[in-house]
Every structure is written in structure tokens, then in C-alpha cells.
Amino acid sequence: MPRFFLLLITTLFFSISASAHTGMFAHAITPSETSHLLMHTTMLLPVVILIIWLSFIVKRWINS
Fold this sequence. Notes:
Keywords: Membrane, Signal, Transmembrane, Transmembrane helix. This protein has 64 residues and is mainly α. It has one domain.
């Protein structure tokens, strides 16, 4: 189980990093309000996906 959480944290870190760099690159090319919003959205998207995924795991754990 500890290896699973280490893999999860590592995957989340690289996912946030890749998304954030994609958003920052778009913002650097065309510095506008839309690209600024895209930058923050791409930074938060992996975190939101992880929270939803963890909530399903916790629900299954509680119900079992």
C-alpha cells in the first residue's frame, strides 16, 4: 500500500507540473486574460481530478 501512495503522489506532482507548464507556455505566447485563466485552470485540473478520485476510494472504503 505505501508504494501505491508514493506512485500516486509522484503521478500527481508530474501531472500538475505538466499542466502548469502547458498553461504558462500558452500565457507566455499570448499574454491575455484568457490565457491567464487557462494557466490557472490547467494548474488546478489535476488536483480536482485527484480529489474526486480519492472521494470515490474513501466511499468504497467506508461502505465495505
